[in-house]
User: What shape does this take?
Amino acid sequence: MSEVVSVIIDGKKYTGWESVEISESMESAAKVFNIGLVSSQVTKGIVPGLPIKILLDSDVVLNGYIEKRSRSIDSSSRSMSISGRDRLGDLIDCSVEKKSGSWSKISLLALCEEVCKPF
Assistant: This one.
């Protein structure tokens, strides 16, 4: 039984991609992806910053954003790849949103909830 991989970018489902790679590690925390698209796709509107979901059958395995787009053109073919991270990347890149002061006498769970509240 083969599993079906779906790629949804900014609410639009794309098919005809050449490759989909998702990796995760303890060092990077966020899942990262790289997708190779074939030249027959209409790819003009695919730009960094757009939301992306990658599904395996009907299960969402990555929910994130496109961070980079690369194009390759030669005499016989055209291709494009997009890469990025899941939404945890926002938390990794952020600064804590606290107007002033510090935390004291707070549980680890409460601290994590406070820091992650904007996400």
User: Anything to note?
Assistant: The mean pLDDT is 86. The radius of gyration is 18 Å.
